[in-house]
Amino acid sequence: MIDPPSAAPCRSSQRRFSWSSVAVGTALSLAVSSGVIAGAVVVGSPEGGWFYPYAQPASVSMLGVWLAYGVGAAGIMMIPQRPHQRPWATLVFWIAAATALQWTLRTTAPYPLGALLVSDNANSFYSAAQRHEAGEILTDFSRVRYKAPLHVQSNMPGKLLLTDGLQHLTTRVDLMPWLVIGLSNIGALLMFGFVRDLFDSRQVALHAAALYLFLPSRTFFFPLMNTVTPVVVIGCAWLLVRWLQTGRTRYAGLLGTALYALVFFEPLPLVMGLLFLALAGAAILRREIAWDRFIAQAAVTVFAFIGTSEAMTALADFDVVRTFRTLSRHAMEFNAAASRPYGVWIVANLWEFAFGTGLCQLVVFAVALVAGLRGPGGWRDRLSRPITSLCVGLVAVLGAVDLVGVNRGEVTRLWIFLGCFFQVPAAWACSMLSSRLAIALVAGVTALHAAIGVTLIRFVMP
Description:
The chain is mainly alpha-helical. The protein is 73% helix and 1% strand. The chain contains 26 helices and two strands.
C-alpha cells in the first residue's frame, strides 16, 4: 500500500507527541517518587478511612537497590534483538531477569515474602488451605468461607484452591511465594500474544510484556493472589481477539469457559466486558468479523459460560451466581462498617490507581487517547483503530469500576488487572519512536518507582 501524502507528516507529529508524553511522564514519575522518599506522598485517603502507612525512612543503603532495580529494568530493554530472534526466547529471558531483580529488591523490603504468605492479616488463603482439602472447599464453600478469615470471606474459591494446589508442590513457605510470582509473570507471555494479535506488531507486544513485568502495583503486592488475577484476564482478552480475527466458533466457546474461570477466581474483572465490547465494535468496523456472525458466536460464549456453570453445580454442588451475590453484599457491608464514604473515594480511588499503574504510563495513555480520537479520517476510521478502541474501552472500564463504588480504597491491589492493560498504550507509543531508549526510559522509571514504593510503604503487612 502507498501511503497518502499526509501520512509522513502525521507520523512525524505522532512521534513528537510520543517523545513529549514520555518526557513529561518520566518527569512526573520521578517527582512523585521523590515525594515518597521525602515521606510527603500519601497513597490512599486518611479522610476516607484507608491509606498505606510508611514502613521505614529512606536510607543511603536503599539507594543501591533502587538503582539496581531501575537500571536493571532499563538495561534489559537496551539489549539489542537479532532480526530473526524468536520473541518467546526474549520473553523467557526477560521473565527470568525480572524475577532475579525481584529477589534483589526484596532484600530491602520491610517484611520477607514468607511472612506475608502465612499471615492471616495479609493473606488468609494459606491458613485456610492448611485446614481444608480441595473437595471440601468446592462442595461446602459457604461453610468454609463463613469460618475463614477476612480475605477468604470476601473472595470466590479460586484463590483458595490455587493456594491448596501450590501446597502440593512445596510446603516451604520461603519457596511458595516465588511460585506465585512465577505464575503472575506468566502473564507477560499472554500479554505478548494479546497485543501482537491486536496491533499486528511484535514490537508493540514485546514492549507491553516488558512493562507488565515491572508494573508497580504487581510489585507492591507480591506474593498475594491478586497478582495472579491478570493472568486469567489477559488470557480472556487474547481469546477474544483470536475469535474476532479468525471468526472461529471454538474461540468463542473457549472464551465462555474462560470467563467462568475468571468469575471463579475473581469476579470484579468482569467489568472488562466494556473493553471487550469496544474491541469487538472496532473489529466489526474494520470488517474483520460480520456483525451477524459476531452475535451468533457471542451466543456460543454465553452458552459455554452457562454450560460450565451448570456442570460445576452438578459435579461439585457449587453455585457461582449465588456465591457472587453473597460476596457483593459482603463488599457493600464492609464499606459501611469501615466508614468509607462513596464521595471521598470516587476521587481518591483514581489517585491510588494512578500511583499503582505508573504516572508515566497514564500521561502517555492520555496523549494516545487524544491522538487516536483526533487522528485523520472519519469517525469510523478513528474508532476502528486498535489504539483508539483500546483507550476508549479502558476509559469506560475505569469510569464504571470507580463509579459503581464497590471498591473504596485498596484499589492499588484490587485493580491490578486493569493497570496491566494501561501499559499497552505506553508500549504502542514507545514502539512508534523506533528507539530502544524510549521503552528503556519508561521501564526504568517505572521500576524505580516500584522499588521505592516497596521498600518505604507498607502495602502488605503480616
